[in-house]
Every structure is written in C-alpha cells, then in structure tokens.
Amino acid sequence: MSMLDGEVIVCGQSNGLAVELIIYGDEFYARYETQTGYTVVYDTRLGRYSYAKLLNGAFISSGVHVDKPAPLGIRRHLKESPEVRNQKFQRRYAQLRPPEFQHLSHEALTLGPEDGLLSGRRLTEGHITGLTLLVNFDDVRTNISREDVNEMLNGQGYQRNGNFCSAREYFELVSTGKLTYTNYVVGPLQLSKRRSHYINNLLVEEALDLAHVALQAEGKSLSDFDSRGEGVIDALNILYAGRTQYSGNLWPHNAVTTLFRAGVKTHFYLLASAGREPVDLSIGTFCHENGHLLCRFPDMYDYGNRDGDGEKSQGIGQFCLMGSGNHNDQGRIPSPVCGYLRDLVGWADNTVWLNRVESATVKHADYSTVHKYPTNMLNEYFIVENRSKIGLDSGLPDSGLAVYHCDTLGSNEWQSGTRERHYQCALLQADGHLDLENNRNRGDAGDLFPETPGIAVSHETTPSSRQWDGSDSGLVLSQISSPGQEITFQLGAVAANPVAQLSIAPDLLIPDNFEEGVTSTLTVSQSGTVKFVSVWVDIIHAWIGDLIVTLKSPSGEHVILHNREGQSGDDIKKHYTSTGFSQLSKFNGKSMMGVWSLHVSDQAGQDVGRLNSWGLEIEYDDVSHVFEKTIQANLAIPDQDVMGVESPMVVDIDAVLADIEVSIDIAHTYISDLQVVLISPSGQSANLHLYEGGSRDNLKAVYHPDTTPDLMALIGIRIKGEWVLKVADRAVADTGELISWSLKLVY
Predict the structure, then answer these.
(1) Is cis: bond before 98, omega within 30 of 0?
(2) Which of 178, 386, 532, 572 is most buried by a 10 A CB count?
(3) What is the Cα–Cα distance from 51 to 68, expressed in whole angstroms?
(4) Cis omega (within 30 of 0) on the bond before 648?
(5) Phi/psi of residue 486, nearest 5 degrees
(6) What is the CA angle 407-386-456, rounded to 5?
(7) How far, in whole angstroms, is CA 625 from its chain's centroid?
(8) What is the three-class DSSP state of 387?
C-alpha cells in the first residue's frame, strides 16, 4: 500500500490540463482537496476534477470543475461519513485482496496473522527473478527506456538521480545477502486505450498478454519466473508511463489477480508509475510494494478504515520502509526495513538478548543483528536499533537510538496504545509527544534517543518501558552515546544524576515585525551545577524564517536556538540538547538555580505566530560543598546615620554560588528604623531588611532566596572575596547593636 497524507500531487484529467491536488489516503480510500482546501471528486462526465458536495454522507460532483471559483455554499475540507468511508474501503479491499481474506472482520484484516506477517506465498531467501513490464498508454508515453528501468532495478553501484542504490542492492543489503531479487524488464509495451480508461479498468491482463507475446519473441516464457516450480509467477511488476496517478486502479498498489498463461498463473502483482523521464525514477515505492508482494510485510501504519474506528495514525512513520519511509528523499533513499520485520522473516542471524548483558554496542546498518529485550509474554518484546542519520537512514528526520515496543499480536491500526489495542511495532518517541499515534507528523527531530548521560528509558520515564498491560518490563537504558557508526548504552538500574524538569504553556502571541518580542520564564528552585541541558519549544508561525528564539540562563548567558532559519516553513516544534545542539553546553558547570527565560522575536513583516509552550530538562550534580562562618561583630549601630556600620567576612574559596543563607542577630528598640544589606565580592547587593517590623524590638532572622528575592540575583556569582553586612539606622531616637551574623554559601 502507498499512503499519502497531505502531499501535493499533479493529477491528470481527460479534458483539461493536469491539476495540483492535496491527497489524503491510499489505494483503498482517498480524499482530494484543492490547495485552497475545497474537497474535489473526479467527474467522469466532465472528465475533470470538480468541487464535491455531500449527499447522504457521500461525495457527489457539483458539476463545477476546479478551474472555476468554488460554488457558493460549499464548505472547505468536506469529509464523507465514517460509514460511507468504511463501505468504500471494504469494496475496494475486496477487489484487491485474495478471496480468502474477504470473510474476515475489520480487526482481523489489520493483524499479521502469520506471526506478525501477512498470509500468502512468501519469498524472502534465494535468487528470485521478477517480471517487470513497462507500459505506455495510447495518450501518455514515457521517455524512460527498458535499459533505464533495468539499471534502476538490477544495477550494481547504481546511484542515478540521487538514488542510494538499485532495488536489487537494497534487498541484498537489508537481508544481509539472503535475498537476491532481480527483474527481467519487458517494454515499453503499448496499451490500446487512453490513460483515463484504466482508472476504472485494471490494465494487468492486457499488459500480461502483450508481455507474453514479447517474451516469446525473445525466446523466453512466463514459466521462467516461477522459481519454485509451483506454477505461480513469483513477482509481476507493471510500471506505467507518466506521473503517478493517485486515482482508482492507477493508484500504486499491490494486489492479487489470477490469470493463467503458458502453464503458470499470476498471483501477487505490483502496479505503479515509472514516470516521464529517467530523472523521475526512484526505488522507494517499488521496494515498499515488493516488501508486501515478496516478503508479506504488513503496512506499518494506520489509515483509519480497516479497524472501523475512522481514526488514522502514522504507525512507525518514516522509520521503516513499510511505514512511510519509502517516501524519504522523494523515494530515492528509502528507509531500511526495521529490525522488527527483519527479525520476523529471518534476515537477522544474530540476536543479542539485552536482558543478559550490562552494556551493548549497536552498529549502524548491521542488518544481520537484532538487539532484543524479552518480556514475560512470548509475543511482546522490545528491539533497539542504531538509526544514526547515515546510509539508508540519511533521509530520516532524526538521528540516534530507536526503541521499538513490539507485539506480533498487535495491529498497525490500533493507535490507542492500550492493553487490548496497540501497534504491532510502536516507536518509543523520545520526546514523549506521541506525534505518530496522533497523526501530527510522520516523524520529527525528537523521536530518537540522542546522547543521554543518565537514564533514558525505564518504567517511570516518558516514554516508558512498561508492558502493554502496565507492568514493569524491567528494561532500563542509560548512558546512551552520541549518534554515529556505533552507539553504546548501559542496561539495568543505575545511580542517576538528579534531573529538574519544568514546563510552561504561556500561550503568548508573537507580535509581527517587533524586535522586542515576547519573553516567558521558568524558575528553578533547586540548587545544583548543570551537567546536561535539553529544551523543547512549541511555536506556531507561518514563516519561521522571521523568528529568533533565545534561551537565557540565570547567570545571564544567552544561547540562540533558532536564528531565522527555515525560510517559509511552518512552526517550530523542536527538542534541543547539549549534545545535539552544542551551544547549550556553555551552560554546563554553571548554577542552574534561578530564572531561565525564552525570548521569541519576529524580525520581518506579514506573518504572526504564538509561543504555545516550552520546557527545560536539566541534569545536574547535587551541590555538596558548603562554606559556613559566623562573625561576632558586637558593633554599635549609630542613630540616624545613613553610613551605619559594616562587618566584613572574607571567603578564600573560588567557586560559583549555588545557594545562600544569611542569619543576623541585632539588638534594637525600633527595628523599622533599620536597613540591612548584604554586599557581595562583586559589588552586587541584596536588601535583607528594609524598614519593616514597626516598633518591635530586636531582629533575629534567617534569609534565603526563597523568602528574599534580592538574594536570588547573587546566584551564579563567584564567592571568593570580601562579603560585607551593612546595618544603618535611618530615623531618630532609637539605637542598637549588631551582635553577630552568619553566612552559609553552597557551591
């Protein structure tokens, strides 16, 4: 199956030029919109795409084609009722799938009944030769030659048009040499009808008959493509001329048709577009559909119809060929088959059981090895993979360690993540946002685990390693190294550094073209020294190239997170870490206590946005060093003298202040006459007492940043030097004495 989720696609018309439409769906059910948001249907009477209306929950044509303004009263983003969608899905499914599946319930259709794989004839080892037909329509022809297709499918060292490799090389690589899949290419063959005819009339039989004649002329037979001698053609691939048509029987798909020719029969086939010119050739869709056809891999995503819930989700997203990873880099660098599926078909010879080791090293592209953590359920387990952004993973949106929660009895339609309804293979998204389950995107920069000094995954983290029934699986991953050819990590419980986590949803509008921008703050009350900082931001904006986003620490240091990158891109939803975004490491070793601020400004006109939310996660060292000293001053406080008295205290330790506490003992008959100030070695001062207390006698008090805001400003300064306590009496008639004072400095 080939799913689209909001892609802009050029769609042909019988009577008119091709139009660009936004498509949501797959070969079983799809919905089309104009780029202005109006839902459209193909009107066969007009031979053109026309604005849609709803009648009894189903689309009908308004009779007005999309080159004209939308008719009055038609609303944008129309959708058919769930009942209609599921009825259409079932009709289409019955057309494309074998009769033996058609009696199954909605839910049964979403499972991998063969231990996680689809039922049917599976060819995952040995040398398999498929038959690929290149076909032209009566009105649409391709300039792609037989040799071009042969090179894309069978070439050695193939990198034309930016493709990572040929289809043959792809399957040899991900199967670690177990599957050599070549194709014999025939064509171009000339079909008899216009392209529009084949939207509603499957072209497979006509193409096969043309191929049968062509093969005989070349001294070959259809039986040459039956590797097992079972009377079944192993793989039939048909590539048609022109752009991909995401409509009817021309939507790229794999399906079943039984046609008897030359002593053999067809079974599974693939139909997809070849393109217009050689530059259009890419291996992604071919590899994805042959993953179904040959290997019986299920689709690793949910389009919301097969289980009857009407809710779609992304499944594993871009992180597997059988999710939406076949589209990576426009299909030229498809994602590898994920470790879960490679393990199911026996391509992984080596299993590293993570419950038996204290540490592990995972090599990138070691497709013969799977790192697996079992649970007390035979069908449920975890798999860990190195998905650094290199090789076949260079088209991914993130780089790091992937952790999959696997259940061969799960369903790729079940996005709710409950005990009863969950995916076959769920990616634990490191940022905890569940974007794939909620259909927000097909993967983003927060999905893989980056370098993580402490615990990354356990029963109490988000995401967690709990089993689907909520019990503790026992899997604990920590000390993950940075992405690269090898990623190392520790297993089992570790003594973790403490972590401070804070977040806020300020919902602040970002003024357009206003340099002062908006600022949101978070206050860290714990004392400690920063070891590792991560910050996430969620900003809605229609042109992120206008924005500058800056993080400021309590010590006043600034780091620019986003500096007008991204041009016309929408929204900043990103997770920055000290390792992945090295500028954040300037906070390491500094005090974390105090006010952290995020500043967002728009530097150009026309587009506005909103700071939805942001948060901090700071791993820190507990501060265990304390300087304490008491001065027995016994200094008389002169009456009505602004100069007052000063008592010094010298600190010889060169360190950064993380916390402070000041105690004073003053005898006085009217304490609201008094001002008490602490002056630091840097000259910064903090008012401790300022004309408070009325006519009360004596002042014995302890001051801390939690109760005395002025002290918070001293956090982060160097403590070495002379500290001074100054006491002044600003009114007449009463006198007193500074008996003693104490200083407790945590660093």
Answers:
(1) no
(2) 386
(3) 9
(4) no
(5) -135, 140
(6) 75
(7) 41
(8) coil
Residues 122-172: tens digit of each pLDDT: 899 999 999 999 999 999 999 999 999 999 999 999 999 899 999 999 999
Residue 310 has pLDDT above 70, yes or no: no
Determine if the pTM surpasses 0.85.
no
From the list 278, 255, 280, the residue with the least C-alpha distance to 266 is 255
Question: Could you tell me if 237 and 131 are in contact, meaning their C-beta atoms sit under 8 angstroms apart?
Answer: yes
Greater pLDDT, 27 or 260: 260
Strands 369-374 and 380-386: antiparallel
What is each CA distance from 63 to 18, 20, 26, 71, in whole angstroms?
Answer: 18, 19, 25, 10
SS3 helix, strand, coil % of the chain, rounded to 5?
15, 40, 45
> How many residues comprise the chain?
747
**Under a CB-based contact definition with an 8 Å cutoff, are residues 14 and 26 in contact?**
no
Angle 275-281-283 (CA atoms, 0-180°, nearest 5)? 125
Report residue 595 as tokens.
């006010």
Q: Are 611 and 547 in contact (CB under 8 A)?
A: no
The model's pLDDT over 578-606, given as tens digits with 9 standing for 90+, comes to 777 888 988 988 888 889 999 999 998 88
Token pair of 173, please? 């690589």
User: Which residues, including other chains, have CB under 8 Å from residue 136's CB and lie 6 or more apart?
Assistant: 142, 187, 188, 189, 190, 191, 240, 241
Tell how strand 609-621 and strand 685-690 pair up: unpaired
Tell me the C-alpha distance between 87 and 103, whole Å.
15
Residue in 459, 743, 462, 454 with CA at minimum distance from that of residue 621: 454
463: preceding bond cis by omega (within 30 degrees): yes
